[in-house]
């Protein structure tokens, strides 16, 4: 049996990363900001302590999607690589950017207040609203979006 290798990167290969340990908390995030960030019905994310992510090739660009969060992406091909609340000790990586995404099975639907009514998959998983997330850094009432859309 082989030990999982927690590596990943963007579509063009210019930005690569390694995780020092297995990520946890794999989830679909249905919040409106994640929908816009990935251009789809949800973002698939999993997280590690910030110090356990090493950029091994190239470096991502960062977009401050709000006053509360920032998102790494490849500046060449545009691949979304993750999400991090400002000041958080953890960083999320996009599961699709992992070299072996099968090793990060989804366990939760998050941000379900923005879940599209016709998105039906993994419906037996627990669901959490953004407002009920104990890891949110501050009240979302203080959120100011920088995404340029209502």
Write down the domain tally. Answer: 1
Q: Do you know the CATH topology?
A: glutathione-dependent formaldehyde- activating enzyme (gfa)
Level-1 CATH class name: Alpha Beta
| Name given to the CATH architecture | Alpha-Beta Complex
Class by SSE composition:
mainly beta
CATH H-level name... which superfamily? Answer: glutathione-dependent formaldehyde- activating enzyme (gfa)
Helix content: under 10%
User: How big a fraction of the residues is strand?
Assistant: 25-35%
Taking strands numbered 1, 2, ... along the chain, how are they ordered across the largest sheet?
6-7-8-9-4-3-10-11
Overall pLDDT, averaged?
A: 87
Query: What is the 3D shape?
Result: globular
Total number of β-strand segments? 11
Characterization of the model:
This protein is mainly β. The protein has one domain (24-130): glutathione-dependent formaldehyde- activating enzyme (gfa) (Alpha-Beta Complex), CATH 3.90.1590.10. It is 5% helix and 31% strand. The strands form two sheets. Strands 6-7-8-9-4-3-10-11 form an eight-stranded mixed sheet. It has a three-stranded antiparallel sheet with strand order 1-2-5, with no helix packed on it. The longest helix is centred in the N-terminal third of the chain and has 7 residues, at 32-38. The radius of gyration is 15 Å and the shape is globular.
